[in-house]
Design goal:
heterodimer, A: alpha+beta, three-stranded antiparallel sheet, 7 helices, 20% helix, 27% strand, globular, B: mainly alpha
């Protein structure tokens, strides 16, 4: 029995095609501007002089991110009306009918995963396609990825399969919420902070 | 910005209400300030009515940041975990206790000890209201807010606007406040200096020792350098008038009122700068 569903993201395989983002948007019929899964384009670096020769030293990779259905769901703890809860299988869900639209959970979430939905005047986020999971289907983002850069499953099983790395620049410290997320980093990720890398597509995400 | 406008008004007015209650009420309850009548009402009546009026306006404005305000009655459901629930609890407790104090005084219920006990309970609830208001913004996910600046600036707003409101209240009402009233301008100047220094050193996005942005999936907040400068100018203008008026030996009501308005505007601008540090 699954006790904590989790996502796996392989940054070394992701090309930034955004098929995951679009599949999520399509399946959940999200409004223009509302994204539950987003692909951040991380870029940095420049030219560097080595042994008298100018060589490019750039950092460029993508990070696909949705709600990480955290083991410590700080969004649920912050919600004054208990509109956010965690299922037995670890999926964090928003009860829209109870949400008062204070948007405090948006500030509390370290992954910027909670988004305001102007149609319902409440907050919304990835629900792990729980209805698909309950009928044995994978989440839309996972099945849409052409590079198999996304996977899902029980957190303990994913750890056995892929290891236990939860961090890649520019994610915040994972101790803030213990995300149910495993990441295979891109080869550039270790140099990203040192090369002043930053998210290049804030307008999009 | 957007819905944060209502939060700016709610936090500044809520903090003013607590400061007003403590610094206007304290001298009457504990120091035996002369309870002369002002416009046909006693100062203690005016204290409770003023505090409740400020709290009512603050609470009403706070509803404008809710997108589903009709469901707000459930806001205490998560009091065990949510600082927002706790803030609402202390807000209601403070207003309720002040109303009870007003009723006791109005209808002559309870002796002096009961009134003092109620006043202390109100003050405690008010302080916890401001503390929970500050604590709820101290989120690890919001680096700009998760530091000492948030509680220091929230309490300074309460103390500074409260003491200045007290000065205006005593001066405009022509109430003799004894040593307390003589010390008030000096206290106000000290708090003004503390607020100015805090803004220079710690203000989000502008302070010399502000929290620096780290790795984050949240877009960077906005820098409102013009508003930050205007805030500092308001505080300086307030301080200049207070010093000039105080040099004559007694701060007149008009000077006290001008200083209060300048400081209130400054603290409001400071709060706008504070909320601008959050991602849109």
């Amino acid at each position: 029995m699954v006790t904590q569903y989790a996502f796996f993201f392989d940054a070394s395989a992701c090309t930034g095609c955004k098929a995951c983002q679009m599949a999520c948007k399509d399946r959940n019929d999200l409004e223009t501007g509302l994204l539950w899964r987003r692909v951040y384009e991380v870029v940095g670096g420049g030219w560097e002089k080595r042994a008298g020769v100018w060589v490019p030293d750039v950092v460029a990779y993508n990070v696909s991110m949705a709600c990480n259905h955290c083991e410590k769901p700080v969004c649920a703890w912050s919600c004054p009306v208990k509109a956010i809860g965690k299922r037995d299988d670890g999926i964090v869900l928003i009860e829209t009918a109870r949400c008062i639209g204070c948007r405090y959970c948006e500030w509390a979430c370290p992954y910027n995963a909670i988004r305001f939905d102007a149609r319902t005047n409440t907050v919304s986020k990835c629900h792990f396609c729980f209805d698909a999971l309950d009928s044995g289907e994978p989440p839309a983002c996972v099945s849409a990825c052409p590079l198999r850069a996304l996977d899902f499953g029980d957190l303990a099983e994913l750890r056995k399969k892929y290891g236990d790395n939860r961090h890649i620049f520019p994610l915040p410290d994972s101790s803030q919420a213990d995300p149910a997320l495993i990441i295979r980093p891109h080869k550039d990720a270790g140099r990203a902070a040192g090369r002043a890398a930053e998210v290049a597509n804030w307008e999009e995400v | 910005m957007g819905t944060e406008r209502s939060l700016v008004a709610f936090t500044v007015l809520g903090q003013l209400a607590v400061g007003f209650f403590l610094f206007v009420g304290g001298p009457f309850i504990f120091a035996g300030a002369e309870p002369v009548s002002v416009a046909g009402r006693t100062p203690v009546d005016l204290l409770t009515m003023g505090t409740l009026g400020l709290m009512a306006v603050a609470a009403a404005l706070s509803f404008f940041h809710l997108h589903r305000p009709m469901r707000a009655y459930q806001a205490l459901r998560n009091i065990r975990a949510s600082w927002l629930s706790r803030e609402v609890f202390f807000e209601v407790a403070f207003a309720g206790l002040v109303a009870a104090l007003g009723a006791c005084i109005q209808f002559g219920i309870g002796n002096a000890a009961v009134i003092k006990g109620l006043f202390v309970s109100c003050g405690l609830a008010g302080i916890l209201f401001v503390a929970s208001m500050a604590r709820l913004y101290m989120l690890p996910s919001m680096r700009a807010w998760n530091g000492m600046h948030t509680p220091i600036s929230f309490f300074l707003t309460s103390l500074l606007t409260g003491t200045l409101a007290s000065l205006v209240f005593f001066r405009v009402g022509g109430i003799a406040g004894g040593r307390y009233l003589r010390a008030l301008p000096v206290i106000c100047l000290g708090l003004l200096a503390a607020s100015f220094i805090t803004a220079i050193l710690l203000s989000p996005q502008h302070g010399l020792f502000r929290a620096r942005p780290g790795p984050s999936l949240k877009p960077p907040g906005r820098r409102l350098a013009g508003l930050h400068a205007a805030r500092l100018a308001c505080l300086l203008a307030g301080a200049a008038v207070l010093v000039t008026a105080g040099a004559g030996g007694r701060v007149a009501g008009a000077a006290a009122l001008f200083t209060f308005l300048m400081v209130f505007a400054g603290e409001t601008l400071g709060r706008i700068v504070f909320y601008a540090a959050a991602p849109d």
